[in-house]
Amino acid sequence: MENFEKELVEAAREVRERAFAPYSNFKVGAALRTKSGKIYTGCNVESASYGLTVCAERVAIWKAVSEGETEFVEIAVITGTEELTPPCGACRQIIWEFCHDIPVILANLKDDTEIVQMSELLPRAFDTKFLK
Ligand code: THU
User: CA 128, CA 45: separation in Å to the nearest integer?
Assistant: First the structure.
């Protein structure tokens, strides 16, 4: 991994500590890099009404988009699992919506990493081009 990718994973690792996950005890951190080099982070935020939970990836994207960001180059997702955890289906759709075919760095706390393209995680994605 390049240094700027290690930095992204580190940002995801730090924000993961702030996950609000008392129901699942499954903490997730995400860090999204903009084209201009800025990093937006997110952790999962759960609710006693379980279905209202928001994943780390979407929190990071909502934060960036609400600050006016429109161009993204890479996202890192970290969990405490042995096997690297990919984004859930809902997050794949949202990552595709705002980031298209970016690389996704999967990471865990043991410093294992793997980089996969969004087009691998969400082949034949539904997006705005079908709405024309
Ligand atoms: N979670 C994420 O934050 N991202 C994913 O891509 C998968 C799931 C969170 C949601 C919930 O708080 C916990 O992990 C268990 O599903």
Answer: 28
Fold of 3-131: Cytidine Deaminase; domain 2 (3.40.140)
Distance from residue 31's CA to the centre of ligand 1 (Å): 14
Rounded to two decimals, the pTM is 0.97
Which DSSP symbol is given to 68? T
Ligand 1 centroid distance, CA of 56 (Å): 7
E strands, the chain, in order? 28-34, 39-43, 72-79, 103-108, 113-117
Q: Note the pLDDT tens digit of each residue in 52-99.
A: 999 999 999 999 999 999 999 999 999 999 999 999 999 999 999 999
Provide the residue ranges of all domains of the chain, joining segments of one domain with +: 3-131
